[in-house]
Amino acid sequence: MLESINRKFGPNTLRVSILVLVLVLMVLFFSTQIQNYLNPRLFVRISTSVSIIALIAVGQAVVVMTRNIDLSIGSIIGCTAYFLGGIMALYPNIPAFLVMPLAMLIGAGFGMVNGLLVSRFKLPSIIVTLATLAIFRSILVQSSGGRSITTASLPVWLVDFARTNAFEIAGFQIRWMVVIAVLVVVVMHIFLTRFRAGRQFYAVGSNPDAAEFAGINMQKTVLQAFLISGALAGLAGFMYLSRFGNITVVAGLGLEFKAVGAVVVGGINIFGGSGSVIGALVGATLIDLLDNSLVRWELVSEFWRDAILGLLILFAVAMDAILMRRLNARRKKPIDEKVQDPQDAISTNGTTPKMEEK
Predict the structure, then answer these.
(1) Distance between CA atoms of residues 314 and 262, nearest Å
(2) Which residue has the higher pLDDT, 294 or 319?
(3) What percentage of the chain carries pLDDT values higher than 90?
(4) pTM exceeding 0.90
(5) For a 10 Å CB count at each end of the chain, is N or C smaller?
């Protein structure tokens, strides 16, 4: 049965379907535990928060697909939000349509630093980004001089952007932040699955030697992955600035944990080569919904929230490993049986089967 489901839907579709089912069950469970849980306010709060996490989860997913990881995303968000806020305070008349590209450019600059260190100097990404996590944060602390960005210094349109609705469905407000995040996920999904340049990220993570033999520029692909991650973190920094307004030097702290969690829970293989940004979006929704629900659930202390999220990540990794091991075993079994058939292949001792004598 598992084999037939795998042939019909594929591993990525199966992962996403299971995640959606878990998401629905989680909503139903908390609706029985928390009074007035299902309401439009919860939807707006979760969707607005997820729109930020989804962006960095998509960037993280692209990096992980290449067998790397970016732990500096939280610091990039903080730096982008603070520096962008400073620029907008000094030059409030900058056209609105230029602000998001500017934020992505700032983030891409930080991503380029990570990408060059990993791709050019062949340094382990976990070490590089762990170092730049601290370096970028230190740059923010030193350059800020202890000052904070306040909503009073920002243009009104920027402060109001996070609360602006794109449209409304049956009383549920859909903010522009949510629309932008969904568009990014859709565009990245199409790029990664339909275009050769996007498929190269999978190839590099799946089999680096084969990808290099096929003519794929490994250094360029890894650099591009970190540039995408940095640019999307920059866009998330813009949304962070608009949502919170008051930005301090600790802005974005800890978001890298949620990004990694969303990617792992979303079914992206931590060893690279497989996964879907749609899964990263569902994983981000699952992580943020659980986090927000645990805050309101009186039976769980706030000190256990991170522990539960950690257990969720471990469970997701274990289940993904078990699922993929079983699917690969069932996929390999018919091939082994076919090889053992003397009418179809060479016999197991390396010689062709003898023809039956007349």
Answers:
(1) 12
(2) 294
(3) 61
(4) no
(5) C
The total of structural domains in the chain comes to 1
Distance of CA 342 to the CA centre of its chain: 48
Q: pLDDT for 41-79, tens place per residue? A: 888 999 999 999 999 999 999 999 999 999 999 999 999
SS3 191: helix
- List the domain range (segments joined by +) for residue 47: 2-331
CATH number reported for the structural domain that contains residue 98 in this entry: 1.10.3470
Q: What is the DSSP track for 286-318?
A: HHHHHHHHHHH-TTS-GGGHHHHHHHHHHHHHH
User: How far apart are the C-alpha atoms of 15 and 50, rounded to whole Å?
Assistant: 19
Residues near 13 by beta carbon (within 8 Å), at least 6 away in sequence: none
Position 133 pLDDT exceeds 60: yes
What is the torsion angle, in degrees rounded to the nearest 10, for the CA atoms of residue 50, residue 54, residue 56 and residue 61?
150
> Is the predicted pLDDT of residue 297 greater than 90, yes or no?
no
Model confidence pLDDT, tens digit, residues 222-231: 999 999 999 9
Give the 3-state secondary structure percentages of the chain, helix then strand then coil, rounded to 5: 75, 5, 25
Q: What is the SS3 assignment for 350?
A: coil
DSSP 169: E
- Whether residue 158 is predicted with pLDDT greater than 80 in this model: the reply is yes
Q: Which residue has the tokens 């275009």?
A: 195
Q: Is residue 350 part of a domain?
A: no
Residue pair 151/246 in contact by the 8 Å Cβ criterion: yes
Q: Which residues pair with 169 in a beta bridge?
A: 172
The label of the residue with tokens 């983030």 reads 107
- Confirm whether 319 is domain-assigned: yes
What three-state secondary structure class fits 210? helix
**Count of positions (residues) in the chain:** 358
Model confidence pLDDT, tens digit, residues 194-214: 999 999 999 999 999 999 999
Answer whether residue 339 is part of any domain: no
**CA 271 remoteness from chain centre:** 15
